[in-house]
Amino acid sequence: MADHPERTAFTIGHSTRSQDELLGLLGEAGLRTLADVRAFPSSRRHPQFDEGALSHWLPEAGIGYVQLPQLGGRRAPIPGSPNGGWREPGFRGYADHMSSPEFSAGLVRLEELACERPTAIMCAEAVWWRCHRRLIADALTVRGWRVEHLGLGGRTAIHELPTFAVVRHGTALSYPPPQSSLSV
């Protein structure tokens, strides 16, 4: 699995893993940088995943650590959000955030990192489809990246855009609400 086609990025959730488990998954995938996209890079239950701890033990293992707060989750939807295809307000809010200059700057930095060294995007949630990593993966996918979600037991899932995603002007994403059909 350590062979990476050009422009491939990975996602992972630290969840309840141990430090050794996370290092094992990153190592098996041949990853050299961990991009932390948590809004709050700390964990009371799992202190090994605090920003300070990660910035210490990852480099010791030969893996770079970068915090990207511009890509952090926990965003509130804007009034009149055009992203009503997401029923979950957290995803709708993050989709709104994706059109901001802050998100764009964070995404550019993430792409730079991933071009330099094989990179994993990390948040706390174990399951990628319940995390804002799925929307970051959407943004990378429309920019020509292959995104693989690292799961339990080293299994991966190749990212695909949700069916309700709309791509405009090459890379602009929106997630409009479903249109109701009219009976005649």
Please give a quick description of this structure.
The protein has helices at residues 19-28, 51-60, 89-97, 101-116, 133-142, and strands at residues 8-13, 33-36, 64-67, 119-123, 146-150, 156-158, 166-168, 172-174. With 184 residues, the chain is α/β, with parallel strands linked by helices. It starts with 7 loop residues before the first strand and ends in a 10-residue tail after the last strand.
Provide structural commentary.
The chain has 184 residues and is an alpha/beta fold. It has a single domain, classed as Protein-Tyrosine Phosphatase, Chain A, CATH 3.90.190. The chain has helices at 19-28, 51-60, 89-97, 101-116, 133-142, and strands at residues 8-13, 33-36, 64-67, 119-123, 146-150, 156-158, 166-168, 172-174. The strands form 2 sheets. The chain has a 6-stranded mixed β-sheet with strand order 3-2-4-1-5-6, with helices on both faces. Strands 7-8 form a two-stranded antiparallel ribbon. The longest helix has 16 residues, at 101-116. The N and C termini lie far apart (54 Å).
Features:
184 residues, alpha/beta, Protein-Tyrosine Phosphatase, Chain A, 6-stranded mixed β-sheet, two-stranded antiparallel sheet, 8 strands
Number of strands: 8
First-last Cα distance: 54 Å
CATH classification class = Alpha Beta
Sequence stretches where pLDDT stays below 50 over 5 or more residues:
none
Oligomeric description of these chains: single chain
**SSE string, helix = H, strand = E?**
EHEHEHHEHEEEE
The Cα radius of gyration reads 17 Å
Molecular shape: globular
Number of helices: 5
Helix content range of the residues, please?
Answer: 25-40%
Fold-level CATH name = Protein-Tyrosine Phosphatase, Chain A
Largest sheet: 6 strands, mixed
Number of domains: 1
- The CATH architecture term is Alpha-Beta Complex
Instruction: Give the integer mean of the pLDDT values.
Output: 93
User: What is the percentage of strand-forming residues?
Assistant: 15-25%
